[in-house]
Task: structure prediction
Amino acid sequence: MSHQMNHPPVFELEKKAGCRYMLVTTVAKRARQIMLRKEAGDAKPVARAIEELNNDELEIKYPSEYYQTTEK
Result:
């Protein structure tokens, strides 16, 4: 069975995540959860995680260090 998947461009996902690092780590972490919980169904875990992020179903929690400033 051949089907075409329309993934959003990386730059659109990057805007949702705030930066490329958070995009990659968030998608990877969620994909592992999907795989361990066997939630993927027919989709691949990474594809499912990307779809969730694109559909605003995935909340990104930034580490507290992200909000700290270097002002003195």
User: Anything to note?
Assistant: The radius of gyration is 14 Å. Residues 10-58 form one domain. The chain has four helices and no strands. The chain has a mean pLDDT of 81.
